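> forwarded from #structure-qc
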């Protein structure tokens, strides 16, 4: 009996201790669920990196597709008929303006030139005789040695001979032109393509098929298309003072995405809108000394559409999209807390978005640490690019006694 009494007393004495442990465990569990501050364990604030928005001047650009074309194109055709005796150029090479390209059989044309020269010589001889007769008749008519009618006939013969000589000279010049055209030359400087005829081929004057094509590739033209709706919107913004015109060089992007090293210049814009596409033509002139740009290449052109003053640019990593596609940003407000904002952005400029609404100059947009924060949470903000703050030094330990 004493032993049973002793055991019962010990069991009863352990009940308050068990209850105390249970109550403590429930308190800790409750503190872990809702008692901890929202800032983090132990009430610490979240650490985020922000970018403070500042107004700046930016040039708005538009990327448009285009095709390259030669600045000058000349289709070489014969102006006289004949047999091709010789091709005088290397296919695919560079030619100069006036450089001989083809030599036709010119024997007939050379003979025609000699005939014209002979006719001119006969006319000049007749002119010399008529001039002497006219001079003698003029002297004789004064002393009534010849009749007035004979003198008039002599003068008329002189004028006829002068006309014959003028006609003969024109015939010689014409025959010389025809003979010269038997040697076909390049009308422009540039790169020539393949030859459509070979030695021995018969060509005819003004034929439909070109013998070869010469293209001037320096500079080269880039023809691009822009929507007329974009043009109207741009002109409205310029008229309202939101934008000013941008006379900036044009950057060319090649088919592989690389940037062409030389910049172009906008030459003109077409005055007529294509009824089928609703767009109009823009032409850019681009230097091409190394002939890197070839006619027919697909390129993209970055064209400055306007300059905006006091524009706000926000880093793209600071903008999120909700399921409906609306843009939002997390901002650190004046209380040091996270505040969500609905924003409006229009276009990307580099790695930033152009802000149209929802943000203002001086706002601190969070760009790093977004996964660890929520609305209303207090945070410590560090400006992006600023040196991190050094932690406070621990107090020195007291010397041992």
């Amino acid at each position: 009996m004493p032993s049973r009494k002793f055991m019962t007393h010990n069991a009863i004495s352990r009940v308050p201790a068990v209850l105390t442990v249970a109550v403590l465990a429930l308190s800790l569990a409750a503190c872990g669920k809702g008692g901890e501050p929202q800032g983090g364990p132990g009430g610490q604030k979240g650490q985020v990196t922000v970018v403070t928005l500042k107004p700046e001047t930016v040039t708005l650009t538009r990327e448009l597709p285009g095709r390259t074309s030669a600045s000058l194109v000349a289709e070489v055709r014969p102006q006289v008929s004949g047999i091709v005796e010789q091709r005088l150029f290397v296919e695919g090479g560079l030619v100069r303006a006036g450089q001989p390209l083809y030599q036709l059989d010119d024997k007939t044309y050379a003979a025609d030139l000699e005939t014209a020269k002979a006719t001119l010589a006969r006319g000049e001889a007749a002119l010399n005789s008529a001039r002497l007769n006219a001079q003698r008749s003029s002297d004789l008519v004064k002393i009534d040695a010849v009749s007035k009618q004979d003198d008039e006939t002599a003068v008329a013969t002189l004028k006829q001979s002068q006309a014959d000589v003028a006609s003969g000279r024109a015939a010689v010049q014409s025959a010389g032109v025809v003979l010269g055209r038997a040697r076909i030359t390049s009308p422009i400087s540039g790169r020539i393509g393949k030859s459509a005829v070979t030695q021995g081929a018969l060509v005819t004057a003004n034929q439909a098929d070109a013998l070869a094509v010469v293209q001037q590739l320096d500079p080269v033209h880039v023809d691009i298309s822009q929507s007329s709706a974009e043009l109207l919107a741009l002109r409205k913004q310029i008229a309202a003072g939101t934008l000013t015109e941008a006379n900036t060089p044009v950057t060319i992007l090649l088919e592989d995405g690389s940037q062409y090293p030389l910049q172009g210049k906008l030459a003109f814009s077409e005055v007529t809108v294509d009824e089928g596409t609703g767009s109009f033509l823009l032409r850019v002139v681009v230097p091409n000394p190394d002939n890197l740009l070839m006619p027919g290449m697909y390129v993209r052109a970055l064209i400055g559409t306007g300059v905006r003053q006091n524009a706000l640019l926000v880093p793209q990593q600071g903008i999120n999209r909700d399921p409906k596609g609306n843009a939002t940003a997390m901002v650190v407000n004046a209380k040091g807390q996270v505040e969500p904002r609905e924003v409006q952005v229009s276009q990307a400029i580099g790695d930033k978005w152009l802000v149209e609404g929802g943000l203002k100059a001086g706002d601190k947009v969070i760009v790093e640490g977004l996964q660890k924060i929520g609305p209303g949470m207090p945070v410590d903000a560090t400006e992006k690019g600023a040196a991190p703050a050094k932690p406070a030094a621990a107090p020195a330990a007291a010397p041992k006694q």
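QC bot note: The radius of gyration is 47 Å. The chain has four helices and 21 strands.
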